[in-house]
Amino acid sequence: MTGPLALLDSASLYFRSFFALPDSMTAPDGTPVNAVRGFTDTLARILTDRRPSRLVACLDADWRPKFRTDLLPSYKAHRVAVPGHGEADVEEVPDTLTPQVPIILEVLAAFGFATAEAAGYEADDVIGALATRERTAAVEVITGDRDLFQLVRAEPTPASVVYVGKGWAKAEVLGPAEIAERYGVPVEHAGPAYADMSALRGDPSDGLPGVAGIGEKTAAKLITQFGSLAQLLAASSAGDSRVPLKTRLRLTEAADYLAVAPTVVQVAVDAPVDQSGPDAVPAVPADPDRVAMLAERWNLGRSVDRLLAALPGA
Q1: What is the predicted pLDDT for the residue at 95?
Q2: How many other C-beta atoms lie within 10 A of the C-beta of residue 174?
Q3: Terminal-to-terminal C-alpha distance of the chain
Q4: For residues 160 and 139, what is the distance between their CA atoms, to the nearest angstrom?
Q5: pTM recorded for the entire structure
Q6: 279 in Cβ contact with 56 (< 8 Å)
Q7: pLDDT at residue 314 tops 90
Q8: Predicted confidence band at 1 (pLDDT cuts at 50, 70, 90)?
Q9: How many alpha carbons lie under 13 Å from residue 255 in its C-beta half-sphere?
Q10: Closest Cα partner for 143 from 159, 124, 126?
Q11: Smallest Cα–Cα separation from 64: which of 54, 52, 72?
Q12: What is the pLDDT of residue 84?
């Protein structure tokens, strides 16, 4: 039986590894490798527990895309390390994490795992584009961020999210039924409804102000009642009595935000994805000598051993 296509939200996974493991995990030269080892261990668990036939590690080519900040300047603004002066914004990342990212990419390349990015887009957009294009296998999006709940679907091929926000040991597999039950949105279009609900309620972690006075439960109720954010706004503008006056006023006050929020919140499924190579899970490492070198140089021993043992050809 063909396994699923696993799409990894790579930054989400290595950020969580970095904060979950002590920075006392170091290479012989003193370089912290806690994120590298945690990410490598997570990759081994994915192969062992989820049994994907194909896998793509998706990357941020631009963590704060211009097309989003042009519409909503507050988008992720609180994460900017130093306000830009005509240059690209730099994300505030712990000093000891930054040097580990190239090592993670080296490990992926040495094993032969595909990576993908899209110029001017986030990893979320890459994941959305690849998930939307997939027509032969079930899709599993592996992330610690809720933003990607919008991609769950039942057809043409099922897509679910393996949510690891509380760590791999407490990973949750969420499809349309689970998202509908958790957030009170319609199961028939749980993914798009979740995106509409997110735009309405906002998300401080992404700099999305939302509509004042409308929280998660109210947002879900409104989206369920009217079918979509667009239909809710149309009903409100038309003076539909089903929209309470107070809600109508709040929507009117937030009109500028609501005009751009859907584009900011929804993943860009038309992102021009550039993929490093075939996405088949390698049966054996593409470059065993390089794997051995990286394991020794960066003190990755047991983590690399676990990933080697998880490969289909092991």
Answers
A1: 86
A2: 21
A3: 19
A4: 6
A5: 0.94
A6: yes
A7: no
A8: very low
A9: 7
A10: 124
A11: 72
A12: 52
CB 260 within 8 A of CB 72: yes
Is residue 121 within 8 A of residue 268, CB to CB? The reply is yes
Contact 81, 92 (CB under 8 A): yes
Environment class of 103 (CB within 10 Å of its CB; exposed 0-12, middle 13-18, buried 19+): buried
- SS3 per-residue string spanning the chain: CCCCEEEEEHHHHHHHHHHHCCCCCECCCCCECHHHHHHHHHHHHHHHHHCCCEEEEECCCCCCCHHHHCCCCCCCHHHECCCCCCCCCCECCCCCCHHHHHHHHHHHHHHCCEEEECCCCCHHHHHHHHHHHCCCCCEEEEECCHHHHHHCECCCCCEEEEECCCCHHHCEEECHHHHHHHHCCCHHHHHHHHHHHHHHHCEHHHCECCCCCCCHHHHHHHHHHHCCHHHHHHHHHCCCCCCCHHHHHHHHHCHHHHHHHHHHHCCCCCCCCEECCCCECCCCCCCHHHHHHHHHHCCCHHHHHHHHHHCCCC
Dig out the tokens for 209 from the structure.
Answer: 């102000």
Using left for φ > 0, alpha for ψ between -120 and 50, and beta otherwise, residue 30 falls in left
Round to whole Å and give the CA distance between 59 and 122. Answer: 7
82 pLDDT exceeds 70? no
Q: Which residue has the tokens 């409308």?
A: 214
